[in-house]
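Researcher: Here's my situation. A collaborator sent me these components and asked whether they could plausibly form a single complex. I don't have experimental data yet, so a predicted model of the whole assembly would be a useful starting point for our discussion.
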Amino acid sequence: MKRDKRFKSGLIPSLNPVRFNLERWSYTVHRITGVILVGYLMAHIFETFQLGGGAAAWANTMAALHSLGPLELVGLWIVAGSAFYHGGNGIRLLLNEAFGRFMGKPILPVYPYSPTSLGKNQKIAVWTITGVVLALWVWAAVYLLAGVGVI
Amino acid sequence: MAEPAKVNGGSLVKESWNMVVTYVTGAILVFVLTFHLLLHSPLAGKAFDATLSFGYATGNLTYYQVIFGFLLFAAVIHGFNGLRTIAIEWLHPTRRAWLLNVFVFLLMAFFLAVGTVTLVVVG
């Protein structure tokens, strides 16, 4: 039997959502944004630790971050987008897995095995989250990168 | 009664409890992280750079110490447990799963300690 090239094991193939369904894309982006957020969390804990050293230590930390130039704000913008997506998709997963929302009713496994968990409601939930996240991300760009929008 | 199925050196029951912890810390994070982001958002009434000043940052850590404590613990537990899950799915550890768990637990403890010191010293 010929093996489907999609089903390779390992980290990189497992993160490749091409030719899979919408849920797989959502899974992949959730994983990638999660790793970005943990990386930022570790740096942020060390960054905030400098507050304990007083105003001078904090000024040095800020100067070091500002020396990155536009990369600092672009990095924060990517982290903000990751937080928006991971949070929004996390709420959907919580509603799916803990409360059974958007899952559809279980059916017998009849060919062609279309998953009821990926029904109309699930697709609406995924695309709604994607739309809201993109809107928030544009808003974050305007605020962080262009420096406007202060209320 | 049958024993619970063994997965990665532990049992499925243990992994189920890990998912409960992931869900609970995730739900906490939705609220406390939103609050944290709002303190640095346009709704704070300041330009972003001004929200990074020493006075504003220490003031927030002092006034909202408990909320930041929840944020620290929820983020570290959720984040590192998430990395552990990815590592398990990637590496499929069998006999050495405990080593991965100990490593992740030590990382969690280290970052919780650094964050707690910050909250206590500044707050």
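Model: Some features of this prediction you could bring to your collaborator: Chain A touches chain B at residues 10-11, 14, 31, 34-35, 37-38, 41-42, 45-46, 48-49, 51-52, 55, 58-59, 62, 80, 83, 87, 90-91, 94, 97-98, 143-144, 147, 149-151 (CB under 8 Å). The mean pLDDT of chain A is 86.
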